[in-house]
Amino acid sequence: MSDVPQSRPGVIHDLGYRRYDGLREGTATIARTLFITGLRHAYGLGRSGKSKVMPFLLLAMSVLPALIVVGVVVLTGMSSLPISYADYTNQTQLLVSLFAAAQAPVLFSRDLRHRSIVLYLARPLSAPLFALMRWLSLAVALWFFMAVPTLLLFVGAMLSGLDKSDQVTQLLKAVALQTLLALLVAGITGLISSVSLRRGFAVVGSVMALIVLTGVVTAIQAIAADQDADAVSVAAGLFSPWSLYTGLANAWDAGVETFVPVDGAWVLAYALVALLLVAGCLLGLVARFQKVGSR
Amino acid sequence: MRFVTGELTGLAPVISTAGLTKHYGAVHALTDLTVEVGAGVTGLVGANGAGKSTLIKILLGLLEPTGGHARVLGHDIEEASEDIRRLVGYMPEHDCLPPDVSASDFVVHMARMSGLGASAARERAADVLRHVGLDEERYRPMGGYSTGMKQRAKLAQALAHDPRLVFLDEPTNGLDPAARNDMLRLVERIGGEFGIAVLVTSHLLGELEQVSDHVIVLDGGHLLRSSATGDFIEHTGSLLVEVVGTETERDLLGEALAKRGLTCRPRGAMVAIDPPPTELAHEGAAFDLIRDVAAELGLGLMRLQPDRRHLEDVFLDGGAAHV
Questions:
Q1: So where does this one cross the membrane (chain A) (predicted)?
Q2: Facing residues of B30 across strands?
Q3: With an 8 Å Cβ cutoff, are A115 and B95 in contact?
Q4: What is the tens place of the pLDDT at every residue in A7-57?
């Protein structure tokens, strides 16, 4: 125990063990720290230089068209934006989906694959709170990804002197829809990444769920609308997060066209499915973290 | 039946369990475990699957017991699991380190996850990494670490928030003899100099004999025994005698003692004598007899000592006699 003082060269003295009597934060602060760390990690901040490339490249690609639109609107003095805020997100959906697919494994696979989840769960945060914070980190990262070009468009609209109250209404609608979409997409990609722990599988799974599935749903919607089977076209929209988003945006008059207008009881169905999907993904995540943590 | 280990004088036990049971269907991981653990280093011994890791996970609140109760640092595991996790550190048996992060960054992050502020976490991380002996390599990604370095990093994260109790699950696993020895010295320091209660598991009994003040032995989920390490290696009543010379002299003494009513058998260069029969059981009688016999034969007595048991014997006995 109190053996001979170590006299290794280079080590001048051993201070002995020092206790920590300082402040210990509550659960809320710990959860907030986890959330902020996760948010930073989603953009590769605080991680290796290589991991910053993908998120920022995608962000740049999604911002570029908005910059062009703003340039055109300001220079030509157009009387309205050529694309609505909500529709801009819809048009760049491939980039948003890729961002989610690429970054969800960072937040949901790593801790499970390397088993560091056990170290987290041996600390004050419980498995449900941990899952919730991880989900929030990705959702906010995604929301930010969509909000940056949206805000740019808004700045452009203000610079070219478009009607402020109209633009603010459209902007707020878009932001609310984007929030719901971010929660949905974060839940889906998070759940997929927490189950398929190999990064490659997780990315492919998320791409299947977001891009391929949306493609299939869009095709069905288009064919059904063409065949005048309006109900089928609207119902098909319940099966992909993107068609839920466009459907709700259409119903709310946020400037997004769908094959068949979503109205009546369908609006409620869309909203309900979106909320149930979010809740289901969250429950799945909590169950998954709890199971791995107890092994 | 209650077993108590540790320095319990006037202090509440660090861990106490009452009838703790965990069954997975037909698999009985832990059965009716009632035990108390005090300060210092307590060894938790058992073969693989004896229930050591299950017990730790239940105490941490990661697993729910099928039955029974337990308290850790005065908190009930079911009602105040979060308070417990604030005050304890845990070093799991398996690998749990992300390979792309440096030990320094990781320990800082883990300290923050235990509730330390940013600057306090950095200071504590530097401190504990120095104590566990990770020097320059702490700034390298942990994926490139040797097993010994990984074990040190795992230990550092368990100590980062200055816990009052640490659970160390097989800390010497996969280490070479020198690293194993370092780790055991470190465990001893944590329990002594650092003043942190330690519950350390191992399937190697000899290891825990060296560093722990108390030992709990589990076998197939049952408590085999729990007591101070000193009691384990207690004097069994048997004696060991060694005389000057070769095996010839040894056998000469053994045969002569056998004629006087003692049960003897050779053990290495020594004669092992079973606990003496009742007529020789009173204090010193057997010692006198051995001295006299050696003198009669003209043999030089080199050693005469009580035969101490080793922890292994608890297992060889099957332990049934103790419970």
A1: 56-78, 142-162, 174-195, 201-224, 264-287
A2: B22
A3: yes
A4: 455 555 566 899 999 999 999 999 999 999 999 999 999 888 899 999 999
Residues of A in contact with B194 (CB under 8 A): 17
CATH number of this structure's domain B15-232, picked from the four choices 3.40.50.970, 1.10.10.10, 3.40.50.300, 3.40.50.880: 3.40.50.300
* Residue spans per domain, chain B: 15-232, 235-315
Residues in A whose CB is inside 8 Å of some CB of B read 1-2, 16-20, 22-27, 29-30, 33-34, 37, 47-48, 110-111, 114-116, 118-126, 293-294
pLDDT digits (tens, 9 = 90+) for B270-308: 888 887 777 776 767 888 888 888 888 888 888 887 776
Domain B235-315 class?
alpha beta
**How close does chain A come to B120, measured CA to CA in Å?**
8
Q: Going by C-beta distance under 8 Å and a sequence separation of 6 or more, which residues neighbour residue A145? A: A58, A59, A62, A96, A99
Q: Looking at this predicted complex, what is its ipTM?
A: 0.87
Q: Contact A61/A95 with Cβ under 8 angstroms?
A: yes
Q: Is residue A73 part of a domain?
A: yes
Please tell me the distance in Å from B238's CA to the nearest CA on chain A. Answer: 32
> What is the rounded CA–CA span in Å between residue B270 and residue A39?
70
Q: For residues A170 and A191, is the Cβ–Cβ distance under 8 A?
A: no
- Between vectors from CA B128 to CA B123 and to CA B129, what angle results, nearest 5°? 100
Q: Are the Cβ atoms of B112 and A33 closer than 8 angstroms?
A: yes
Does some domain include residue A264? Answer: yes
Tokens of B200: 């350390």
Contact present, A132 and A33 (Cβ < 8 Å):
no
| Structural domain containing residue A257 | 28-294
